[in-house]
Amino acid sequence: MPVVGAMAIPSKTRISATERLRLASALSLGKALSHLPPGLLRRSMTAFAAKARPASYREAEAAVVSITQYSKASAGPGSCLQRSISVCILMRLDGRWPTWCVGVPSKPPFRAHAWIEAGGQIVAELGDMNSYSRLMTISTHAERTES
Length: 147
Fold this sequence. Notes:
The protein has 147 residues and is of the alpha+beta class. Helix content is 42%, strand content 20%.
């Protein structure tokens, strides 16, 4: 059973053609967006987050499971940027948005990482994410005004 973060990803279950289309679209757009320069990626993600409702932890976790079940490559090492973007896009199709984060650990070795948060919690990540410094965070307007 593949593992993403602290979650064991269940084996693929039968999904509808509509859901396959949604997942394929989110993954394709996630892949394309992951190749953008940081400034343009920030503007794009901010535009997607606009007018979305904040996602719950459970909704975000379900989206991670869906993306990683559909695309095993998205669960692999080095795929965090595309996976996190794809999860955000999939959730946006339902009018929801998690907090999307990009950061680096505060101690060596240096490595950039992208992840999502919802309900004030980091979703589906292994290790001590508290040691990461956030370089970019995109949340919904509602979350920004509540802080």
